Amino acid sequence: FSFQICGMSHVSISVNRFFAVYAPLTYTSLFSKRNTRVLICSYWTVAAVGTTYALKIIDCTVSLPHGTWIFTFKYTAICQQVQWYGEFIKYVVYVVIVAMLDFSSVMRLHYMNHRGVHDLASAQRRSCLMNLVYQAALQGIFFTSELITYFILSPYARNKWEAFLLTTVSWCLVHGMDG
């Protein structure tokens, strides 16, 4: 549930940055307090419905199988599809959307900074631009590395320590570093 909210909130944050850069005159009306609350409630609702569907309706419970240190979905054909398409592919799409929106925002800010005058205000804008670049790049690297280690590399783990590092530790690190 929390991971789903996290993924959707990252997409929302990138959409927010994109509109702040490309539509500054309509930004305040698009991202008013009311609209922002509706957006937050909508992705909490989507996460609740998706989690309830996966865990309760089609019974893809998450467990810690005996002898492993990996929380995983129940091993059935439908649950493997939920894990691959409902988790891995969805988050890859989230990362791609965030990367494209952030890249567009950074390029627009870069273009706007080169057209402007070079004074203290423009130096501050460049500093903010670089912070945005670093934040977006690190965010994408963290999420992509977690997806690769958890979904692609972990099946090749030779023992429970490797599996634990590639899944549980990787998942905790991405969320710990994301803050």
UniProtKB/TrEMBL annotation:
Domain of life, source organism: Eukaryota
Annotated TM spans: 91-111, 132-153
InterPro entries linked: 7TM_GPCR_serpentine_rcpt_Srx (IPR019430)
UniProt keyword annotations, A-Z: Membrane, Transmembrane, Transmembrane helix
The keyword Transport is assigned to this record: no
Domain annotation 7TM GPCR serpentine receptor class x (Srx): ranges: 3-179
Protein name: 7TM GPCR serpentine receptor class x (Srx) domain-containing protein
Organism: Pristionchus fissidentatus
